[in-house]
Design brief:
The chain is of the alpha+beta class. It has helices at 26-35, 51-58, 60-65, and strands at residues 8-9, 41-43, 46-50.
């Protein structure tokens, strides 16, 4: 999956089992969104995760500090 072209991602696109970078379960992602641990943008009833958050996760600096 190419993460460079989109500005917003649906939470289920980012699941590791769907080819994404987040090693969380579906309920884990939604729980983190609700708690504010993952930034989100709401458009109507839909929830999106901004691309800058994913870029920060995938950057070499964040991998080294984990």
């Amino acid at each position: 999956m190419n993460f460079a072209n989109k500005k917003l991602y649906e939470p289920l696109e980012l699941l590791k089992q769907n080819g994404g970078p987040l090693p969380l379960s579906r309920s884990g992602i939604y729980h983190a969104l609700k708690q504010g641990q993952i930034p989100s943008i709401h458009v109507g009833r839909r929830v999106f995760i901004p691309s800058w958050y994913i870029d920060n996760l995938l950057s070499p600096q964040s991998v080294q500090t984990m």
